[in-house]
Amino acid sequence: MFLLFITRKIAVPGKPFIIMTIPGSQPKLPSIVLYSHTDVVPTFKDNWKYDPYSGYKDEHGNIYGRGAQDMKSVGSQYFEAIRRHFKRGKRQWLRTIHIVWAPDEEIGAIDGMAKFVKMPEFRELNLGFMLDEGLATEGSTYKVYYAERNPWWIEFTCEGSPGHGSKFIENTAGEKLVELLVLLFCCDCIVCSTGEDSWENAVEKKSAGNRTGIGEGAEKNRHCARILNYHRVWNRL
């Protein structure tokens, strides 16, 4: 007998979890979870060839849309793999399989997985093994990463001498920010100049980071006393 359930779980209003479950022949065994997230980062529509939220498909089968790589492509692979098994007559496995679509991943999952793991519905999944978010690939190989890689969100505060924008003031926050950015970019250059053939391979083996934002603490035409720099570091443990 074959069954397939689709359920909707709410940890935070407006941010649902969508879970597709294929019960196993031995449902008491720890389950397999195939994870994806539904949210995407913001976009600037004027910089896109097609509407980023239209899911436009061209004559070659390429789909254009925000989140196509991060990470709808991975979730689509899960669905396609199961669809092919269904077509071949394989419609049940030893273990229960859950395909989970979660919200809020791009901004830290505070209202997403962080809350869901504390709910009884998460414990009911009886999780034994989970494939989390990976990297999209243009080839036919699906890559599985087995090491731990944790993101660190770091905020640097550069403080310096304030004053009017027409004055040449020493020891400003801006000067310190430049020194910080040069240092951070040099670290990235070291990562990417170690013989790796791609950024992806470098990130797989080392720590690397990206500047994700700069904030300042004063109006225009002034040397501000404080500048904030936001840095995301992928740390390979």
UniProtKB/TrEMBL annotation:
Q: Which Pfam families match?
A: Peptidase_M20
- What name does UniProt use for this protein? N-acyl-L-amino-acid amidohydrolase
Its domain of life? Eukaryota
Q: Which Gene3D superfamilies match?
A: Zn peptidases
**InterPro entries the UniProt entry points to:** Aminoacylase-1_M20A, Peptidase_M20
The terms under GO molecular function for this entry are: aminoacylase activity
